[in-house]
Amino acid sequence: MVNRNDCLNRDAADPLAPLRDQFDLPAGVIYLDGNSLGARPKAALTRATEVIAREWGKDLITSWNTAGWFHMPKRLGDRLASLIGAREGEVVVTDTTSINLFKALAAALNMQAGAAERKVIVTERSNFPTDIYMAQGLSSWLDRGYSLKLVESPEEIAAAVGADTAVLMLTHVNYRTGYQHDMAALSALARQHGALTVWDLAHSAGAVPVDLHAAGADFAIGCTYKYLNGGPGAPAFIWVPQRHQAAFTQPLSGWWGHAQPFAMAPHFAPTEGIGRALCGTQPVVSLAMVECGLDVFGQTTMAAIREKSLALTDLFIELVESRCAGHPLQLVTPREHGRRGSQASFAHPHGYAVMQALIARGVIGDYREPHIMRFGFTPLYTSFADVWDAVEILKQILDDQAYDIAAERGAVT
Ligand SMILES: *Cc1c(COP(=O)(O)O)cnc(C)c1O
């Protein structure tokens, strides 16, 4: 049976442990919500001051060139590329995940427009709602007879993809359960049926190793403010592999995607390459913060992160199931490593109230309907002792029934 000392020993032997010092986390908090909003790299404060005081304050408009503002979406995209198995010139950091999904999906549907019988977008009902909403919005706005097929479980995807499928649009790691799809197998399945794939990496980038090229994916998008620690509302990313770039056209044809933006021509002509995924002027201050998160990833590897992530989630699952045995907790995250992201979710009939009690005692996870307590594990700054302490507090709350069931009425987030 593991004890707290074992956890301290694991921390002492953990090659990633020193990286925690690069993050600013409040004392007394065990932060298990980096899957929703990553912690702040200490460097972000210095960098923000530099961007605001010097680049904006003193150098003003010249900073578009002198500080490299104009090239930031591509430069950061190239840095992010290595975390997801993409190549240079294939990723830009820009806009939001929702907007990038819209662009990727529109481009994919457009590439399929020649096949009149392909009118279905296949996704999961359990997908993150904005992905479904954006697909619904785009389909109805296009008014070309597109419809969404919402499958109920990963096992149903194979049967749902067929000759009528235009696009298979999936989130690689489910935000609620932490279930991880087999990207290579599903991309191959889609390809066999002539469908294109759009992968949402919101809970994958910086969380699990991803190799988009090896998996044969067609398009991908994702967040930088979750596991990548880019800051609240930080710009998202979009990946268009070189082989699809010439055919990639998206409806948000703003001037940043123009071949010659400063020619100020009255007609749109998309630039070559990944730049055509851009729309307009980017939020420079937020973009600059993304780099501070990527700098930390530059000091390790996704393989090392994955190894620790699985060790953390294994330990958490083991401790919750042994130390909180007898309480009605049910693991909803896959036990199988290959199917698991970097989180562990447990259902409890009073999950909302228990999570509120945890948060009040400094263990920050979150709650997702129905009944699910979600705990994200971020190997860059979560320790094995954190896991022990979080479970100890959970155990006390459950043993003492120290949670307020009345608070569940009208609960929102
Ligand atoms: C977090 C998340 C989003 C967020 O989209 P925004 O446009 O940044 O609000 C989208 N999709 C998935 C799967 C997510 O997990």
Keywords:
413 residues, binds pyridoxal-5'-phosphate, 7-stranded mixed beta sheet, alpha/beta, 4-stranded antiparallel beta sheet, single chain
What does the model show?
With 413 residues, this protein is α/β, with parallel strands linked by helices. The chain has helices at residues 4-12, 43-56, 63-66, 72-81, 97-111, 129-142, 157-160, 183-192, 212-215, 242-245, 284-297, 302-323, 351-360, 384-399, and strands spanning 23-24, 30-31, 40-41, 91-93, 120-124, 147-151, 165-171, 196-200, 219-222, 237-239, 330-331, 343-347, 363-364, 366-368, 372-376. The strands form four sheets. Strands 4-10-9-8-7-5-6 form a seven-stranded mixed sheet, sandwiched between helices. Strands 11-12-15-14 form a four-stranded antiparallel sheet. The radius of gyration is 22 Å and the shape is globular. Pyridoxal-5'-phosphate binds next to helix 5 and helix 6.
Question: Which distinct ligands sit in these coordinates?
Answer: pyridoxal-5'-phosphate
Low-confidence stretches: none
**Considering DSSP H and I runs of 4 or more, what fraction of the residues is helical?**
25-40%
What topology, given as strand order, has the largest sheet? 4-10-9-8-7-5-6
| Major sheet characteristics | 7 strands, mixed
Radius of gyration: 22 Å
Element order: H for helix, E for strand: HEEEHHHEHEHEHEHEHEEHHHEEHEEEH
Indicate the mean pLDDT: 97
In percent, how much strand structure appears in the residues? 5-15%
Distance from N terminus to C terminus (CA atoms, Å) equals 35 Å
Overall shape: it is globular
DSSP strand tally: 15
Q: Supply the number of helical segments.
A: 14
| Structural class assignment | alpha/beta
